[in-house]
Structure formats: C-alpha cells, structure tokens
Amino acid sequence: MKTAIVWICGILAILLTLLGLTWWLMGPDWRALLSDPPKDTNILFWTQGQRDAGFKIMDEYQILVSSNPISAGPDKPTLNIGKPLDFQRDMDAFFDEQRLSGALVLHKGDIRYERYALGHSATKRWTSFSVAKSFTSSLVGIALKDGDINSLNDAVSDYIDGLKGSAYDDVTVEQLLTMTSGVAWNESYTDPNSDVAKFNFHQAQDGLPTIVSYMRNLERAHPAGEKWNYSTGETNLIGILVAQATGRELSQYLTEKIWKPFGMSNNASWLLGPDGNEISGCCIQASLRDFARYGLFVLADGRINGTSVVPDGWFDKASSKQADIGVEGRGYGYQWWTFDDGSFTARGIFGQTIFIDPHRDLVVAFNGNWPNASDQTLNAERFTLIDEIKESLDQENLNDSNL
Asked: Is the pLDDT of residue 311 over 60?
C-alpha cells in the first residue's frame, strides 16, 4: 500500500513539474491570455489586458481565429543605424500616455529611433488592424499592372459575381478604393449592432464569401462617387476582388509580389474570416520593422530591383486626396489618409500607424494598445510628435547646409 502511495505521489509530482514547465515555456503572452481568456473574436470588446497579450499572438490563438502565412525570403537586407534623434520631450511619459508597444523612425532608410514596450520586441509580431487596408490597396495596383484588373473604372460586380444585382453594380473599383460607393455602412466601434461589429459573424448564403453575402444586401445611401464614408467592409470586398481577379490568396500574392522580393525581415501572417478568406481590411501580423519597411517600399514607388511592380504614378495618386473627408488639409486616397503637404498615413484602431513623408524621406511606424479603439486626443498628440520629428530633421538639414 505504501509503495502504491509513493508511486502515485511520484507520478503527481512529475505531472505537476511538467505542467509548471509547460506553463513557463509557453511565454508571458500566452500565460497572460490564458489567465484571462477572451470569450470570442470580437476584439472591440476585449479587456485591455487581453489586448496587451493577444495583439502579439493573434495568429497563434487558433481556437478563435485562423491565419495564412506571409513568408519572408532568404535575402533580408539590414536597416542601418543612423544618428539618434534628439527628442525635446519625455519619451517615457509619451510611451505611457500612448500605451505604445513600439515606435520606429526611419530617415533616408536609416533607423533614427527604435523602442519597444508592453512586452513587444523587434522580432515579435503585432496586429495591424486597418493599416492592412493600405497593403490591400497596393495589391490592387499590382493586379492592375499585371493586367488581372483591366481598369479602375470597371464595375465592382464585373469581378465579384455575387454582387450582381446589388447596389455595387453602380460602383467602380476606384470608388471602392476611395470609399465613395454611396452604399450605407456603420463603422461605429462602440455599437455592437454596427456593420463593422456584425459582418464577420454573418451566416453566408448561396455559397458566397461572408463579406459578399453581407454587403450585397446593403442599401444605397448616396449616389456613387459623391460622398465619402469609411467602410472596412468595402476594403474586405477589395480583397475578394483581388483574390478572384488574380486567382491567388492575398497572403500568397503579398508574399510573391512584396514580402519576399523587397526583403522583409520576418515571416508575417494574415488573419482569416470564418469562410477562410483573408480579412483584407484588417489584421496583418508583422514586426514593426517590416511595417516600416513597407513604408520604404512605398517611398520607392513600388520599385524592386529597379522595376516598379505597380503602374507608373500609382503611389502619387493613391497617396493624394481623392475624396473629401470634411477635415481641412486632409483627405482620403486609395486606402490611405492624406495630408495636403504631400504626406500620408495608414491607420488602424488602438493606435497602429505608418506615417510616410516623401519630401523628407521619412517613415514613422507605431504599434500600440490605446484604452479605446479610437481616441482623437491621443491621435492628435501622436501627430504632434511626428511634427516635432519633422522639425528636428529640417533643423538638421539647415545646420548641415550652414557648415
């Protein structure tokens, strides 16, 4: 009897040791997420702690969501370290106020500032949210250059059969890119009954992709081309359009056309909807350095090994004001937020940003986890910092010219 008890106690001790070792080896992000697991994939209503952990491992949380890989190639050119920027502010306080997980400043391709927090690092991935929209836009340009899309003036329903007979019969590919379709859509991040909160849980009909089944039932609110209305659903339609036009999954197309040939440093991923299609308006998981490298790809006008993969002038048009958003000095291009001074930005909820200033050869990338999905005060302060960076670089140029 004593022998049996000793044997059982020994087995339990081994099991407890293995469980403890497994708990430790899974890493701090998994430990944090499993200690307080989210109930579903509706990130808009996760707690801040769940987001802090989850944003780094979204593509690993396969109980709730699946993803497709975006593979880096063998050639990974390094980013040179430049002269550190001299900030005239307390960056510790800025990181805390913004709840930043990472900030990276590239000037003329060199790293001028790089810092991480919230358990993030240069090799970890963070989710993009709507920053992915600007990647999807570039894939449209590539498909146009390759001849898979004939013209931006084509009707959307020419490429997506499931939209025939819907309000999108009267919408062009370009109007989809500029979010001026005139089709009704509610993008509220606080209303659980908004379109952006509901569409991913829609039960698709007639064998259609989920987003097509959802969007074909929406009504027209304005004539096409007359009014801008921000719509993640329409970027998801763009993803379906590109996939059907090219015959490739978006993750595969991005890998082939940009990620490998341009020399991104790390593997990435693209989250999938319930129907297995990439959520093209959201959710690329990549390192901050590769988000910034995408800015370099844009600054290079899409040139890889001397040849542009997009039509001539694509980024000039894509990154300039094509639609009035009702804010002085700003506008909307082809899935880019634009400024009248020629700079532009990709933005995602909870504080994701890629800012690009072609005149200064500048890319600024942020990852973070704001307390709320959108915050005008935090966003304004972030762009105040970007203005300070621009002023600092301008002063450097002035000092250099006076030598």
From this structure: yes
Report if residue 396 sits inside a domain.
no
CA angle centred on 257, ends 256 and 261, rounded to 5°: 80
In terms of Cα–Cα distance, which of 303, 390, 281 is closest to 339? 390
Question: Does residue 34 lie in a domain region?
Answer: yes
pLDDT tens readout for residues 98-124: 999 999 999 999 999 999 999 999 999
**Rounded Cα–Cα distance for residues 344 and 275 (Å):** 33
Q: Which domain, by its residues, includes 31? A: 2-61
User: What's the half-sphere exposure (Cβ side, CA atoms, 13 Å) at 66?
Assistant: 9
Q: Residue 360 falls within a domain, yes or no?
A: no
Question: Pick from 64, 30, 46, 51: which is nearest to 273 by CA?
Answer: 64
Predicted model pTM: 0.90
Residue 45 CB burial class (10 angstroms; 0-12, 13-18, ≥19): middle
352 forms beta bridges with 348
CA angle at 29 for the pair 25 and 30, rounded to the nearest 5°: 60
| The token pair that represents 328 in the structure block | 């002085």
List, edge to edge, every strand of the sheet that includes 67-70: 67-70, 268-271, 284-286, 126-127
Alpha-carbon torsion angle 259, 265, 267, 271, nearest 10: -60
At residue 22, the pLDDT reads 46
In this predicted model, what pLDDT tens digit does every residue of 379-395 receive, in sequence order?
999 999 999 999 999 99
52-98 confidence digits (pLDDT tens)? 988 998 888 777 789 999 999 887 778 999 999 989 899 999 999 99
Number of domains in the chain: 1
Beta-bridged to residue 114, according to DSSP, are: 104
Is 49 a domain residue? yes
